[in-house]
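Comment thread on ticket #2218

A.B. wrote:
> Attaching the input chain for the structure job we discussed in standup.
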Amino acid sequence: MKQASLRLNVNGLHLQVQSVGQGPAVVLLHGFPDTHVVWRKQVAPLVAAGFRVLAPDLRGHGGSDAPLAIDAYRLDHLCADVIAMLDLLGIERARVVGHDWGAVIGWLLCMQAPQRIVQYVALSVGHPAALARAGLLQYLRSSYIMWLLPPGLAERALLAGDGYLLERLTTDRAQVSHWKRSMREPGRMTAALNVYRANIPRGIVHGHRQTPVQVPSMGVWSSGDPFLGETQMRDSARYVAGRFRYERVECADHWLQVCAPEQVNALLLDFFGVPATTA
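C.D. wrote:
> Ran it. Output below, let me know if you need it in another format.
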């Protein structure tokens, strides 16, 4: 399986993108504290099904540039990076899969540029409006975010004790090892946390984020997710004017694509349709 590591100049920074396969494009968008590596168990099945997989390291992560300014990590900039990547590669339309913050970016892309998205799959995180209205239990689940916001506090805590807190996040040891290696690089933990600091204080639900999603979408939630409840994903249907499909994966934690890859891959291929014939 031939893989190319592309270094693209987008919006004044270099974006590292893994490109594998030939055919209609599938863009995989990671979240915190990940890189493209979190999709390692999805690439081969998608390529075998006839897709070209594009897995960027979002700005501040992995091999991509990490601007110093917190405002550089606003969601509008992150969305613009994805569109610029597609433009540079001459891709008119793509399927998109997003997880965690990558799922938020995917939802916004569906609202901002629906003409560029063929189908969308959100893992773990539902539509921003559904998340905001998910009630007290979801508020309590998300309360950990508040201690990620003060500069320096989370950096020290997450890397203390050889990454003890990182080890508590998922049962997948390979993913934890990757986090430890990548987050020890100077400035990388702060850059990764800046997506919270740039967006949580201003709120992620306003303006065009209330626009009904016209793109055919699927939401996949895992029952072992301690951070996000089922309601916010199920209720995403209210904000999708097009077709919305909901799927539940039992027992897997928040990182369902590495903890339950067979189930996630089967859902992706079924939703996208195999064999893939058109983009």
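A.B. wrote:
> Thanks. Noting for the ticket: The CA atoms of residues 93 and 115 lie 7 Å apart.
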